[in-house]
């Protein structure tokens, strides 16, 4: 009965968000209270003397607070970096660097690579708006179909948006499934690995299918050089990439500094570094500290001038964006805490005993399908990442996804990847990103379904195939 209540609670979240247009935060919190109260009622009706969830308010507040404690500043710093990259012209500079490296002979590849890089810190819809004029100018210059370039850009952005931190969605999913700060660097590494074939699948779809579809987009009235002038003097290539690369490098250093290389005579682990060096590298490699360093690089390296406009308005806009994500993530943490307080995990374990098809790779596919259903039904990739990771957390041992590879939580990492792939499937009319792509590319609805919606389906399926192969090798 409690498992059925959880299923109905998920349906309520999807229905309230998609049909009633209720904000995901309110739909998740409302569902959490409904699920908790009905769970205690089921316990009472079945003769359980004490409530199954002793203090509902305490569980909800505790789950909400613990998630925000562990991830709140990480989301804020990552979002602020993205806002500065967006407003300062750094994203355009990244595009210019990639175009310089790849040239005009391969415009679709250039758009895919540009999108893949830009969406690591910048939300995919913001990235698409920023780079839309570049797409039009490149189409005019090379004669390649604007639909081809639109889909190459949109799928490149989408690949890292759901898979690679510091985009907030993957960070929230990693935290929800129990990956601590030490494991976040490895989530970035495996996310980059999985996102490459996912982006390539979107690129192939753009070249082979979208290239044949019509578009009504007006020809560009300005060249890329003219477009760049809107931002004034663009930052240097180093300044543009530093806020992304420096935190990743610091997290890598922190992980390697604490990598075990042996044991002493007492059996204690010997790490790669020790003493002050280990303390320094561990401090700088902690994700919240590494992202703060990245934010400092963004502020001092990218802001055209440190004024009220940049230090107050830009930062305020970024804080508003991050607040919404933090609230949804916190609501997901509250739901997760309530689920963990019930005997659902133990019951599912008894259902799965002896059923090897749903353990390991099979478990990854189950989680992928849950994320895909939630994404398709209510439209938000971030909400799908948060809700699915919340549901998955107590089930990981039963699904065989709590495996470790040395100190690396490989089972949890692959779970985040499976959720991220499911959160791509599919982008259609209830997804704001779908409308950003279609409106800025002037696609008809029919063309958009064939070009964008089916491309995201292909990307999600490609992603889970890659994750399943990694699961066969690593789990």
TrEMBL record:
It comes from Brevibacillus choshinensis. InterPro entries: Glcn_transporter. The keyword Membrane applies. Pfam families: GntP_permease. The chain crosses the membrane at residues 28-48, 60-81, 108-131, 143-164, 184-206, 238-259, 279-303, 324-344, 356-374, 381-401, 413-433, 454-474. This is GntP family permease. Keywords: Membrane, Transmembrane, Transmembrane helix.
């Amino acid at each position: 009965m409690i498992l059925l209540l959880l299923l109905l609670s998920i349906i309520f979240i999807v229905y309230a968000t998609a049909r009633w247009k209720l904000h995901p935060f309110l739909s998740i919190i409302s569902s959490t209270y409904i699920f908790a109260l009905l769970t205690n009622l089921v316990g009472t009706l079945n003769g359980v003397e004490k409530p199954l969830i002793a203090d509902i308010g305490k569980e909800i507040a505790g789950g909400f607070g613990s998630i925000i404690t562990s991830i709140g500043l990480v989301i804020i710093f990552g979002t602020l970096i993205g806002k500065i990259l967006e407003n300062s012209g750094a994203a355009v500079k990244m595009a210019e660097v990639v175009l310089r490296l790849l040239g005009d002979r391969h415009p679709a590849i250039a758009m895919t690579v540009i999108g893949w890089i830009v969406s690591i810190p910048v939300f995919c819809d913001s990235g698409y708006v920023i780079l839309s004029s570049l797409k039009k100018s490149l189409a005019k210059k090379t004669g390649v179909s604007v639909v081809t370039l639109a889909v190459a850009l949109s799928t490149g952005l989408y690949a890292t948006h759901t898979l690679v931190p510091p985009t907030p969605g993957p960070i929230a999913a990693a935290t929800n499934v129990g990956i601590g700060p030490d494991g976040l660097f490895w989530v970035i590494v495996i996310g980059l690995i999985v996102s490459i074939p996912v982006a390539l699948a979107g690129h192939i779809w753009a070249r082979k299918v979208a290239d044949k579809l019509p578009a009504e987009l007006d020809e560009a009235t300005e060249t890329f050089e003219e477009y760049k002038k809107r931002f004034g003097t663009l930052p240097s290539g180093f300044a543009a990439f530093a806020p992304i690369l420096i935190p990743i490098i610091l997290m890598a250093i922190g992980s390697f500094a604490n990598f075990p290389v042996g044991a002493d005579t007492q059996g204690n682990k010997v790490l790669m570094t020790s003493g002050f060096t280990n303390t320094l590298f561990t401090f700088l490699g902690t994700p919240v500290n590494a992202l703060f360093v990245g934010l400092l690089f963004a502020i001092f390296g990218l802001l055209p001038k440190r004024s009220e406009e940049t230090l107050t308005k830009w930062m305020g806009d970024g804080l508003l964006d991050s607040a919404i994500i933090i609230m949804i993530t916190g609501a997901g943490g509250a739901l997760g805490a309530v689920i963990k307080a019930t005997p659902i995990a133990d019951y599912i374990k008894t259902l799965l005993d002896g059923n090897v098809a749903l353990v390991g790779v099979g478990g990854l596919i189950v989680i992928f399908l849950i994320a895909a259903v939630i994404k398709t039904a209510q439209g938000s990739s971030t909400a799908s990442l948060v809700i699915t990771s919340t549901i998955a957390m107590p089930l990981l041992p039963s699904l065989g996804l709590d495996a470790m590879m040395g100190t690396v939580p490989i089972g949890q990492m692959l779970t985040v990847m499976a959720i991220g792939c499911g959160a791509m499937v599919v982008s259609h009319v209830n997804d704001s990103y779908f409308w950003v792509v279609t409106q800025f590319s002037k696609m008809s609805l029919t063309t958009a379904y064939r070009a964008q919606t089916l491309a995201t389906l292909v990307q999600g399926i490609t992603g889970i195939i890659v994750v399943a192969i990694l699961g066969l090798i690593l789990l």
